[in-house]
Amino acid sequence: MDLTREEQAPGAPAPAPPQAARPPLPVRPRTLPERHSVRAQVLAALRDALATGELEPGGTYSAPTLAERYGVSATPVREAMQQLVSEGVVETVPNRGFRVAGRSPRDAAELAEVRAALEIPALLRLARTLPSERWSELRPLAEATVSAARVGDRAAYAEADRRFHRSLLALTGNRHLVAVAEDLHRKSQAPAAHGARPGPAELVADALIHSALLDALGAGDLVTAERLARDHLAGPATAD
Fold first, then answer.
1. Domain range spanning residue 117?
2. What is the mean pLDDT of the chain?
3. Are residues 190 and 87 in the same domain?
4. Strand pairing class (90-93; 60-61)
5. In sequence order, what are the beta bridge partners of 192?
6. pLDDT at res. 240
7. Once rounded to an integer, what is the mean pLDDT over residues 116-125?
8. What share of the chain is helix, strand, coil (3-state, %, to 5)?
């Protein structure tokens, strides 16, 4: 039987008084600091400059100089450059800035080999089970790469090419595969150390492989799909 305050046994501690309800925490909008969006914009601009050759392999660029070019402070430039350092695209040069590393022929071959090992088995598995109409849904992305290549917009082509491959692999439902493959894809798009770039005709030919690959995958032609994928991952010829 419960005891009232007067009926409690001698020496028993008195019950704690009820605590007042805490006021609810104020709700604040979840917005990112402004510098993060600026850094993202600078990073995108730097990627475009690398794709077009505006930032040349072997060239060294200081954060203040790039900041002046893009009309921002040096901090988001340094942050964006550190991201590119982690990707192996640029190198830090003490007291000078950042040097564009340049992709060697060995780098290109090794990246193509690793990408093929990741992407091709995934695509062939999908080709055995995926309805043909699912491949047709990616046709606009393939056409976007051709459009960018035909006007010679290398930065737009690089982005469209990544979007196409990202969407292809997203059909697997494996987020980690998509993330790892895209990281390798970005590294493979780094400018070549010797400065050569694919010419306009080579870029268009590389873009047209996307549509041919979709045709082969939709038809369940695994032999042709694998050949096209390997040719494409090896990259276009580098002859201006």
1. 105-233
2. 84
3. no
4. unpaired
5. 103
6. 40
7. 96
8. 60, 5, 35
59 and 160 assigned to the same domain: no
Does 171 share its domain with 224? yes
Query: Mean pLDDT across the stretch 219-231?
Result: 95
- What is the pairing mode between strands 97-100 and 60-61? antiparallel
pLDDT in tens, 39-61: 899 998 998 888 888 888 889 99
Q: So what's the pLDDT on residue 33?
A: 43
b (16+ CB within 10 A) / e for 187-226: bbbbbbbeeebbeeebbbbbbebbbbbbbbbbeeebeebb
Where on the phi/psi map is residue 93: left (φ > 0), alpha (ψ -120 to 50), or beta?
Answer: beta
Q: What is the CATH number of the domain that holds 152?
A: 1.20.120.530
- Tokens at residue 180, please? 């790892």
Supply 38's token pair: 């600026």
- Note whether residue 191 is domain-resident: yes
Closest by CA to 185, choosing from 66, 127, 103, is: 103
Phi and psi angles of residue 142, each rounded to the nearest 5 degrees, phi first = -65, -40
Residue 80: which of 128, 51, 118, 41 has the closest Cα? Answer: 41
SS3 state at 65: helix
End-to-end CA separation in angstroms for the chain: 95
Q: Taking 60 as the threshold, does the pLDDT of residue 10 lie above it?
A: no
